[in-house]
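Checked the freezer inventory, then went back to the computational side. Two predictions to log before the end of the day. The first one is the construct we discussed on Monday; recording sequence and C-alpha cells without edits.
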Amino acid sequence: MNNILVIYTGGTIGMKHNPETGVLEPFNFDQIREEVPVLKKFGFTIDTVSFDPLIDSSDVQPDFWVKLCRIIADNYGKYAGFVILHGTDTMSYTASALSFMLENLEKPVVLTGSQLPIGMIRTDGMENLVSAIEIAASQHDGRPCVPEVCVFFESKLFRGNRITKDSAEQFRAFHSGNYPPLAETGIHIKFNTGAIHYPEQWGKPLQIHTQLDTAVGILKIFPGISRPFMESVLQADKLRAVVLETYGSGNAPTAPWFLDTLKAAAQRGLILVNITQCRTGSVNMEEYATGLSLKKIGVISGYDMTTEAAIAKLFFLIGQHKDSQDIKRLWQKNISGEVNFG
C-alpha cells in the first residue's frame, strides 16, 4: 500500500488563472489528475482533501495545526504517506509544530508549496508537487523511506523542524543551515539515510498532541534596545516563555540594567531560551563572558535550533506541563530531531 493523501490547505501552489477574468483562483483538487496529468503515471491512488475555507499561510494559527493532525490521524491507516500543500510564509512553523504533535510517526508527512502558481509558465509548483508525492510514496523493504515530518522545496527534502524561509523571490525559498538535506532529487531521488530519523521500534500507534499553549514571545536583541521596551515584553500578561534572539554564539549586552531585567524575569518564573540570530551555528553560552552572564541568571540554551522550532517546542511543552522546571528539564530532550546538543 502506497496510496497518498494530498491535503490542500491553501497557498500559491494551488492557484491558477481564470481565463476569463485573469484572476488567480484555487483549482479543484478533486480533479488533481486532470490539473496535473503527469500524476496519472503513478501506479497508486492519490486522494485529496481541501480545507474549506482555504487558509492563507499568514493567517495560520495553532488550531490549524490541530486540524491537520486530526486529518492525518483519521486517515493514518488508509495511506502510506501524506502531502500537505501549504503557503510558504509560515510553512516552517507548521512543519516544526507537526514534528512535535505527531508522536510515533512512522509515515512521511511532506509539506510543499511554491513561489509561483502551478498553472503559470516557469512554475516551481509542478516539480514540488510531483516530487513530494513520489517521496511520500517511496518505500524500501516495505518501510517508508522518510518516516518523519519534512519539507520538499526546489529539489531538496529537509527535516521540517530544521528550516527557515529565507527568500521571498527565489525558488530555493528555504534554508537548513544546521542539518543536511534528507534527500535530493535529480534524475533519481537520492535519500540521505544517515540523516533520516527511523523509529527505534516500528509498530507503535500514532499519538497526536493537541494541547498547545501560546503564552510565548520573541525578543530580538539589537543595538540600542531600551529597558522600557524589554520590560514591556517580559512583563506581558500571562507570558510563560520568551525566545531571546541573541548575537553570534548566544551573546547579548552586559549592561547591568539589561542583565537585571532578564534576571528579574527569570526569578518571576519566566522561561528564557537563547537562540542565535545567525542562519547557521549554535548557541554556546560558555564560550564568551557575555553568554556566561546569561547562563548565570537562568537563561537556557537553544543550541542550534531555529526560532520556529523553539517557538513550536515551547508551545508543545507548555501545553503539556504546567511546572516550569518540568518544561526546562524536557527542553533538554531531543524530541523529534530538532536540535543537536553537541
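The second is the one RB wanted added to the comparison set:
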Amino acid sequence: MGLIYDDPRLAALTLTRIAAEESEGPNELTGRMHAVLIDLVQRNGPAFLAELIVALARAGFVALDELAKVTGASTGELLDAVELQVLEGLDDGC
C-alpha cells in the first residue's frame, strides 16, 4: 500500500485540508502546499497532476452541488457567482 498521496482523490483531500488551514493566510502557494505538490510529482510523475486536477474539480463540483441543494439555488447559478467573483478579483489585480 502506498502513501496517501498515491491516490489522486486522497491527495486532493490533503491539499484541500492544507488550503482550509491556510485560508486566513496569503493567496499564493505556501511552503507546505508547494512541498506536497513537489513530492507528488517526484513520487508519481507529472501526469499525476492531471489526475489530481480532475479529482479536485470533481470534489469542488460535488460540494457546490450540495450547496445548491441546501440553498435552493441551481448549481449553474452558483458557478456563475463564483466565476464573477474570480473575474472581479482578476480585474482588481488580486
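For RB: Residues 4-91 form one domain. The chain has one domain: 4-91. Let me know if you want it refolded.
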